[in-house]
Design goal:
By secondary structure, this protein is α/β, with parallel strands linked by helices. The chain contains four helices and eight strands, in the order E-H-E-E-E-E-H-E-E-E-H-H. The longest helix is centred in the C-terminal third of the chain and has 31 residues. It starts with 10 loop residues before the first strand and ends in an 8-residue tail after the last helix.
Length: 188
């Protein structure tokens, strides 16, 4: 039997401090459609009791951004600003003119926003949602396809060179056994 290809992300899910506060940001500010809010009383796939709300915001392409509002096991530390290299959401818009309009809307809502930043292939603005997640709104540059096609041609060499430059440092931090693992069961 041939295994079907993964076609898209159905949803990406995160913890939220408060469902209504999160709804305000993603629906009222970013304009995403609140599609579903499920109140559940056990962890999915188990019989472990745990009450939470699972809410879904629909993207124009049919994919979702989802959140869990579960106050019984939450702490203020869960909602401190995450480093953007650890976690961020990037939403795409059509052009830089729209990017400036989004920046104005975000600032008018009294949300700190910085940028646009020119990354050489996209321009982006950044802010944090109420849950400490960095949110990026980005638009691709006119030469985006050419840049990405050129990067694809060198991607394997970039991996080899990066691994050569960073492997020793990572072995000191994580150990070579951890870096050589290729079985998910070993991580469980």
């Amino acid at each position: 039997m041939k295994l079907a290809n993964i076609s898209n992300i159905h949803h990406s899910a995160y913890r939220c401090r408060d469902a209504e506060q999160t709804r305000w940001f993603y629906e009222d500010i970013l304009g995403l459609k609140l599609k579903a809010a499920l109140v559940l009383d056990e962890i999915s796939g188990t019989d472990l009791p745990r009450e939470y709300m699972h809410l879904f915001f629909e993207m124009p392409d049919g994919n979702f951004i989802a959140f869990f509002d579960e106050p019984n096991n939450a702490s203020p530390e869960n909602f401190e600003h995450k480093d953007g290299l650890d976690l961020h959401l990037a939403f795409q818009i059509d052009n830089r003119e729209d990017l400036e309009a989004w920046k104005k809307k975000i600032k008018d809502a009294r949300i700190k926003c910085f940028g646009p930043i020119d990354h050489g292939f996209v321009h982006s603005i950044y802010m944090y949602d109420p849950n400490g997640i960095q949110v990026e709104i980005t638009c691709v540059d006119d030469n985006y396809e050419q840049i990405m096609d050129a990067k694809e041609k060198e991607v394997r060499n970039q991996f080899i060179e990066w691994t050569r430059r960073t492997r020793e440092q990572k072995e000191k931090i994580f150990g070579s056994d951890e870096l050589d693992r290729r079985e998910v069961s070993k991580w469980l």
